[in-house]
Design goal:
This protein is of the alpha/beta class. It has 8 helices and 9 strands. It has 2 domains: about 210 residues, Alpha-Beta Complex (Spore Coat Polysaccharide Biosynthesis Protein SpsA, Chain A); about 60 residues, no CATH class.
């Protein structure tokens, strides 16, 4: 039986990238049941949508992806089978949802999450991801907390984590509990934590035929880069403490990786990455992030 898909999109405000995401959903040969848009800004723009898709729009007082997705989850239709989380700027291939539904139909009861196959690899990927992109470690989370990217896979892939902005999840008993996560400005590692929190018998896969692209966002200001870099390392430490319990390995390896990434950013004149890595170093020494 075909799955009824509810698409939840969290966004700061209505913009061109969001409209492009909506257009790519409209062009699907397998349409979702509904689209739920949760924006931090006022909803003052007309969305042109296929008549077969129901549109719901909500405003979030808090600017945080997890909080906004929880609003979307709370307002899911009762007869939905799957929730597909999308970020603004995700462009779906016109057969993406058809292939996603097909993959879910052939999966067994152990399958709880399926990620879309991001076909464009972003330049922002770290040095480890670029080095290991062709290895068997795709989609794995290492014991020092590094999550290895799985972009542009050429086969269905069982993974340890799913990217929050391009992943679908089974709605168990028609309900999904709110995901608890600190309301930072950037929800880094939230997707890794949710993925690792699953039962060991439950499985996550990436469907290589369910293809999508992500529009590259504008560069961030230096102050925000320091903030994000610090938060990245701090969140990574929390992942290691909670799931791997090996802080010695973390502190032995992460400073080395960050240092090499810093040197590479200097050699390639990547100033944004340089500032980001300074924040990453700072995060090694932060005990509590407020």
């Amino acid at each position: 039986m075909d799955n009824k898909i509810s698409v939840v999109i969290s966004t700061i405000k209505y913009n061109k990238n969001l409209i492009k995401t909506i257009k790519s959903i409209n062009s699907q040969n397998y349409l979702p049941k509904e689209i739920i848009i949760v924006s931090h800004d006022k909803i003052n723009e007309q969305i042109i949508l296929n008549k077969k898709i129901h549109l719901k729009k909500y405003i979030s007082k808090i600017k945080n992806q997890v909080y906004q997705r929880n609003i979307g989850i709370k307002n899911l239709s009762k007869n939905s089978d799957l929730i597909l989380q999308l970020d603004e700027g995700v462009i779906l291939n016109n057969k993406c949802l058809f292939e996603l539904n097909k993959f879910w139909k052939k999966g067994d009861k152990s399958l709880i999450g399926v990620g879309l196959n991001q076909t464009n690899v972003l330049k922002e990927n770290g040095i480890m991801n670029r080095f290991l992109k062709k290895s068997d470690l795709k989609g794995k989370v290492l014991k020092n907390g590094i999550n290895i990217d799985y972009s542009n896979t050429d086969k269905d892939l069982e993974v340890m984590w799913l990217k929050g902005g391009i992943s679908s999840w089974k709605i168990k008993k028609k309900k999904i509990k709110n995901r608890k996560y600190p309301f930072w400005k950037w929800s880094v590692y939230e997707d890794v934590e949710i993925s690792l929190s699953k039962d060991k018998k439950q499985k996550l896969f990436v469907c290589h035929k369910a293809k999508a692209k992500i529009i590259k966002k504008n560069k961030l200001d230096f102050g925000n880069l320091i903030y994000r870099g610090s938060l990245h390392t701090f969140s990574q430490k929390n992942i290691v403490k909670k799931f791997f319990n090996d802080m010695t390995f973390f502190y032995l390896t992460m400073p080395v990786f960050i240092f090499f990434s810093l040197i590479l950013s200097i050699l390639t004149l990547n100033y944004s990455k340089f500032i980001y890595n300074l924040g990453r170093f700072k995060g090694l020494f932060i005990i509590d992030f407020n």
